[in-house]
Write a structure and sequence with these properties.
This protein is an alpha+beta fold. The protein has one domain: TATA-Binding Protein (2-Layer Sandwich), CATH 3.30.310. It has six helices and eight strands. The protein has an eight-stranded mixed β-sheet with strand order 2-4-5-3-1-6-8-7. Helix 2 packs antiparallel against helix 3, helix 3 packs antiparallel against helix 6 and helix 5 runs antiparallel to helix 6. The longest helix has 17 residues. The C terminus is likely disordered.
Length: 210
Amino acid sequence: RGPRAMAEIVAGGENFGKKRQLETGVEGDIDRSKRQHISDSDRLAFKLLVSNKDAGTVIGKSGATIQNVQGRTGCRVRISNNNEFFPGTQDRVVLITGTADAIIMGAKAIVTELFENPIGEDHTVDPETKSVVITMLVPEKTSGVIIGKGGENIKHMIEESGAKVKLNSKDSRIPGLDERVLTCDGKLPSAKRAMELVMEKVLEEGAPGY
C-alpha cells in the first residue's frame, strides 16, 4: 500500500498542545494571499497525519524537503517527534501554520511529496492512473457549510475536482473530538483540488479560528 495522508483542519491557530515536542524547519516568508476574500493577517493552522515512514518523506534528508516546502509556500511546518502519535492512531502530526493561501499551498506540496516522492517506495503514484485518498477532519460546526443547502456545496466540489468527497455521519465521530471525517478520493490532482475546495469553503465562511 502506498502512503496515506489524513488531514485535520484545526481551529485555534498554532495551538498544538503543550505536551507534544516538535521537529521544526526554517520558516520562510509568507506569500500574499491570492484569495482576496480571506484576510492574510490571520494566523491559521492545518494538520496532516502521516506514518513514521511518511514523516521521513516530509522532512527529507537533513530537513531539506520541509525547508523547501516552507520556502516555496511561506507556511511553517512542524512535525511531532518519532513515536509521538495523534491519539488513537499510529500517525505522527504534521502541523502547517500561516495564512490561508500559504497553508493551502503547503498542504498541497506535502501531499505531492507523500504520493509522488515517497521514501523507500519502488515506484511513485502515477497521477494519471492511480487513485489516492486524502482523509480530513473538519470541525462539526462547519459541516453545514461544507454540505450546503440540499448538498449543493459538496456536489460542486465533486463536479469541479472530479474526486469523490464524502463527509461521515455525526455518529462516526471519534469520542471526545468535535470533528467529522471527510475523504477526498480520486487521482492525485483531483484529490488535491477537492482538499483545497473544502479548505476554501470553510475559510470563506469565516469560521472562528480559521
